[in-house]
Amino acid sequence: MRCLFWPTKKFSRCKNNSKFLFCKQHRLQPIIVFLAFFGFLADYTELWQSMFKTMFSRTESPRLDYSITADRMDYAPGLLVDDVIWEQDFASYLVELENSSSSAEIFDLRVDLLLHGGVVNYKIMAQQGCEDITFFQYDAVGGIKSGSYVRTTGAYYVNNLSINVVRLFPQARFTVQIILKFAAVNEDGLFRIQYRFKKKLDGSTQVVESKHPIVLVDKENKLINIDKKKPPSDKLFLQIIPKKTMTFKEDGSILYGTEGQADEAIKQYNLAISRDPGSAPSYFNLGQIYARRNQIDQAIENYKLAIKYKPDHTEAHLELGYAYAQKGIFDEAIKELEIALRYRPNSATAYNYLGITYNNKGQIDSSIKNYKLAIQEQNDYPEAHYNLAMAFFKKGLIDEAVSHLELVKEYRPDVADTYLHLGLAYNKKGQKENARESFKAFLKYARNDKNRAKQIQQVERILRNIESQK
Q: Which residues pair with 165 in a beta bridge?
């Protein structure tokens, strides 16, 4: 039998005879080839595994794991905890989220929370593989009228918070700490999550949304949890939790407490700064108090200190920009507001403040552009609609101004200035009936304001002229 070995040195089959498959000269060659083949397999095992893993993971979808767990809460009242002066009814929670997929990425993640209490503070405790985490809250104002006084909250917490992440890579995770002023209610809260991901097979985008109730597990120990089995309730709630209650007379003058409370707040924030000289939230809150007192220089000083210790403090950049605008330092105002927009590109407030700054600078076209951007980001923004209407009046665009004032009237039906300008606009357009209704509404809301005596006299005179033309 001829030897089966191939090839020889001359690249041809061996011519030796053999009783078995190979001659004596080549009997070891098959063993060498066999060992070399398995050596090749061993060397490239990881490569083969990677190839097969890629082939079979093309259709993998993101897998999000999320939870809310209680953090430490046994702090003594008055202790400074994470830039917050702890109170008896405060509670701390950790919101944790992970993309446990090994290959799928997540885009435009939004987590909306309705919680059992007002949000006092929030911050990122840890994050890995996340791109651009930002936060957003919907503000609300509440008040109670009792007898001849109006009791309202001048400072308050609300129970909503949105967490936005531009991109989560595979195995990405983050943890957010939320401190609440706990206020137990019978209704469930809400955990709503929405995101996009791309299908690798066809490149199409799929949007995923899910909702779960946040249930009160233990009221006494302030324990809450996401119930992934229970369907969310149709009855949602918005809580407005007052920090301090202030009482005003109906004419807007202070009955008691406000100045003392502000002085006490300043004292507490300065105490917090003495304990932690780099406490950016304390400087920012001091700036807010001084701004409300119209002490703009002191407000600017504290906003700048907040930014010094936390350069990405978006709200401090916003308020510093507005304070500069109030002082007529327009270029610095624009600079700060543009920085705020870099940190929060969808900030309607920043665009509105920019519009105000350009308007005060005399650049009406630029102010109109920014008011429109504010409305584009938040359509139900009455201040931006009102400011845009005033800018249109300056340009002589009466119809455009009226359309935005009508929207202001829908969002804030009790603002006297809205009806005053609507009445003047309709009167100028010759729409006497609309003008008459607007002027009467103005008188209704402005009647008790002593500072509007001259305006009231002018409007009453215009109304008499309109009535006499019937």
A: 109, 133
Q: Are 368 and 392 in contact (CB under 8 A)?
A: yes
* Average pLDDT score over residue span 221-250: 66
Residue 122 pairs in a beta bridge with 178
DSSP code at position 17:
B
Distance CA 44, CA 61 (A): 28
CATH architecture of 252-468: Alpha Horseshoe (1.25)
Contact 321, 357 (CB under 8 A): yes
- Asked if the model's pLDDT at residue 218 lies above 90, the reply is no
**CB burial class (10 A; 0-12, 13-18, 19+) of residue 172?**
buried
Q: H/E element holding 157? A: strand 149-158
Bridging pattern class, strands 189-198 and 106-114 = antiparallel
Short-list 412, 319, 333, CA closest to 366: 333
- The letter for the amino acid at 430 is G
The tokens of 227 are what?
Answer: 């119930």
What pLDDT digit, counting tens, does each position of 158-210 carry?
788 889 998 999 999 999 999 988 887 667 888 999 998 887 666 678 888 89
Domain ranges for the chain, please list them.
1-43, 64-242, 252-468
> Among 423, 352, 426, which Cα is nearest to 391's?
352
How far is it, in rounded angstroms, from Cα 104 to Cα 110?
Answer: 17
In this structure, how many other beta carbons lie within 10 angstroms of the beta carbon of residue 308? 13
Q: How many Å apart are CA 225 and CA 45, to the nearest integer?
A: 44
Query: Taking each helix axis from N to C terminus, what angle separates 416-429 and 453-468, rounded to the nearest 10 degrees?
Result: 30
Amino acid letter at 55?
M
Helices 280-292 & 258-275, crossing angle to 10 degrees?
160
Residue 180: closest CA among 153, 214, 151: 214
Question: Is the bond leading into 7 cis (omega within 30 degrees of zero)?
Answer: yes
Q: How far is CA 241 from CA 139, 215, 238, in A?
A: 12, 19, 10
- CA 377 – CA 384 distance, rounded (Å): 11
> One-letter amino acid identity for 118?
G
Maximum alpha-carbon separation in the chain: 132
**For residues 344-355, average pLDDT:** 90
H-helix or E-strand spanning residue 162: strand 160-182
What end-to-end distance do the CA atoms of the chain give, in Å? Answer: 128
